[in-house]
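> Could you send the Cytochrome B561 prediction when you get a chance?

Sure thing. Input:
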Amino acid sequence: MWKNSSQGFGRLAIGIHWLSALAVFGLFGLGWWMRTLSYYDPWYRLGPWWHKSIGISLLALTLLRVLWRWRNTKPRPLGTALEQKLAGFGHGLLYLLLVLVMVTGYLISTADGRGISVFDWFEVPALVTGLHDQAEVAGSIHWYAAWSLVVLALGHGLVALKHHFINKDGTLKRMLVTQPSEEN
Ligand code: HEM
Ligand code: HEM
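Output:
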């Protein structure tokens, strides 16, 4: 039940999907709030520490997710040919924006040559530093890409709810619980 089947997603894909969704919305809220803090607020330093630590963990989780997806069976697509095309495009765009937000987050953080401490447990080295206006350029891409990601994810969530409540098909159900495989 950890792996995907033709009928639905396995436990690992489901767990990673929802953990990532929680992290994305949480990081967006935290990032937004971080901008409002004054220099003397204790969260002025703590906020970015959590944001970067969770962000790097999400990056590792996303790499695992893509690897797992590539090595695993894909559940049978649902819906019409057009819906399948749109879903494929939308999911591809979600993956792309996720990676763009995390890579630009890394580039903002390493612009001054310092590595990123992950929960004070280990440090990710600064491999790319000193590009022209690195922090500013990466910072504005980070902002717009994070916004696009969150808006697209909300639209994607609404489409999932439409499938569940209006079309009454198994789209949302198979991202919530593992489905019995056809052989059983
Ligand atoms: C999907 C994951 C992420 C989301 C949704 C997200 C979202 C945001 C948002 C909304 C802001 C505030 C906007 C701004 O100050 O420009 C922000 C700021 C920031 N993020 Fe992220 N972020 C994510 C991942 C990361 C990662 C992986 C890192 C680095 C390892 C990172 C590092 C930063 C830094 C350093 C800032 C402060 C930028 C500044 O003060 O200009 N973020 N993030
Ligand atoms: C930041 C939030 C989210 C992100 C980044 C995200 C991303 C993704 C991606 C990339 C896939 C494709 C999985 C694959 O085939 O590899 C997917 C599938 C799915 N997501 Fe999300 N998602 C988010 C939030 C949500 C929410 C809030 C809901 C529901 C309310 C939802 C429901 C679903 C469903 C039902 C599928 C399975 C679609 C299918 O059967 O092909 N997602 N999601």
